[in-house]
Amino acid sequence: MSQQLKDILYKVSLVSTKGNMEVMVSQLTFDSRNVNLGAVFIAIRGTQVDGHAYIEKAIEKGAKAIVCEQLPESLVDDVSYVQVIDAAKSLGLMASNFYDHPSEKIKVVAVTGTNGKTTTVTLLHQLYTEMGYSAGLISTVENKIKDKIIPASHTTPDVISINELLVEMLNEGCSHCFMEASSHAIVQERTAGLRFAGALFTNLSHDHLDYHGDFSHYISAKKKLFDELPKEAFALVNADDKRGLVMVQNSKAKKYTFALKYPADFKARIIDNSIQGLEMDLDGKPVWFRLSGEFNAYNLLGVLGVAQLLGENEDEVLRQLSMLKGAVGRFDLIVQGGITAIIDYAHTPDALENVLKTIQKLRTGTETLITVIGCGGNRDKSKRPIMAKIACKFSEKVILTSDNPRDEEPMTIIHEMEEGLSPIDQSKILSMEDRKSAIKTACHLSKPGDIVLIAGKGHETYQEIKGVKHPFDDKKIVSEFLKLLSRD
């Protein structure tokens, strides 16, 4: 695939150009290590490194054009230079042009919010597959082209990878793509140049303040997705979240709401909520779902809204939704020897409280709830004591342990979690650096009828320590310990 440089610069805000704008280029990349002969190298200022420092290396490897915010002091003959206002946004527009605008040929729906993104996009992909469509999925857990799984490394891939995925989806006959849009990705312009058929907002709570700085910037990051929607798109927001309507204040898109509590375009009421599932009333229709918890009631309602806004029949959507199971590592149940273990990705205060409140509503009152929880290293430290406090509030026993410590010392993170605890809370906790030992201890402390919640990692099959990802699967480990216990 080769195109003239000037053609892939369509709609890019230019400051200046040097050299031949009609040069043929065969690759877009923002990573100098991946430069091939004939590439355009886009120098992006990232959180860790500045791409401008790698311009010379990119040229040495064969780059024919450089896109940057600041031109190098010395220019190389036979290399074309393009100075732009915003390199990250320019990359998105260039990627869309280079791959011939794939997002305009497939219905792409973005889902953003603190919690519920993965479950929502997974349910949408499952729903459309069951209804006979060929659909794509871009999520934290995995990317999918129909039933073909492509491992995911980020909640939202870089914009070149997204366009490549969309092209592959189109080649495989996909008509729809459902993707998570994280706040990091939106701010870093990883969704720039994409044309969305619609976007869904789930909720907003305390998360990623280590990156965004404060809550107002976090809100603005999510809102940016809706601000940039075209007028033909739909914007569907959770009206029960106090920031739901804020999201669409400046949006040109057609605005819709969903809610369990307040008036909304898509409204439902929970009739029954148990460990086996949910029964909800939707416009006088009682419908049973296999997912549990109020948070899943919102996820299901959001999915119903998206499907109807895309033109699907409500009765058929509800029939198919009632049979779906949701995403791996999201309120994932294992029952062995009378003990119920729940694996959940909850890694924010709000998500943890939602899961624990759901368990609270499903309890008979006679069982013991044991929660295993940690906090990630190199992430927002302010939520650590809050997470520990919430775990103790709803649990009889809490084991504080490692999550993904990354570059931090695990016990330092655990001690910062302990700072949020009262003397009464302190009597409930055990602190164990080794996560496997923590899970084993939780299983040994439980008896038939009890509930063990393993929170924080969910679908992840690794534990990141000092830059190395070690194999680690909460679901597999707790299953093995419970099987051993049931044989005793």
Structure write-up:
With 488 residues, the chain is an alpha/beta fold. The protein has 17 helices and 27 strands. Helix 12 (349-362) runs parallel beside helix 13 and helix 16 packs parallel to helix 17. The longest helix is centred in the middle third of the chain and has 16 residues, at 294-309. It is globular.
Concise summary:
With 488 residues, the chain is α/β, with parallel strands linked by helices. It contains 17 helices and 27 strands. A 9-stranded mixed sheet has the order 11-10-9-12-8-13-14-15-16, sandwiched between helices. The chain has a 6-stranded mixed sheet with strand order 20-21-25-22-23-24, sandwiched between helices.
Assembly status: single chain
Class by SSE composition: alpha/beta
Largest sheet: 9 strands, mixed
Total strands: the figure is: 27
Helical fraction: 25-40%
| Biggest sheet, spatial arrangement of strands | 11-10-9-12-8-13-14-15-16
Taken from the alpha-carbon principal axes, the silhouette is globular
Number of helices: 17
> What is the mean pLDDT?
93
Distance between the termini: 62 Å
Please give the radius of gyration in angstroms.
Answer: 24 Å
Instruction: Report strand %.
Output: 15-25%
**Segments where pLDDT lies below 50 for 5+ residues?**
207-213
List the SSEs and their pairings:
Layout (H helix, E strand, L loop, with lengths): L2 E2 H4 L5 E5 L5 E2 L1 E3 L9 E4 L12 H6 L4 E4 L11 E5 L2 H12 L8 E6 L4 H14 L4 E4 L3 E4 L2 E4 L7 H13 L4 E5 L2 H5 L10 E4 L7 H4 L2 H13 L6 E5 L5 H4 L6 E6 L6 E2 L1 E6 L2 E6 L2 E5 L4 H16 L4 H8 L10 E5 L2 E6 L4 H14 L6 E5 L10 H11 L2 E4 L9 H9 L4 H4 L2 E3 L3 H11 L5 E5 L6 E4 L2 E4 L2 H14 L1
Parallel strand pairs: 4-5, 5-6, 6-7, 8-12, 8-13, 9-12, 13-14, 14-15, 15-16, 21-25, 22-23, 22-25, 23-24
Antiparallel strand pairs: 1-3, 2-7, 9-10, 10-11, 17-18, 18-19, 20-21, 26-27
Helix pairs in contact: 4-10, 10-11, 12-13, 13-14, 16-17
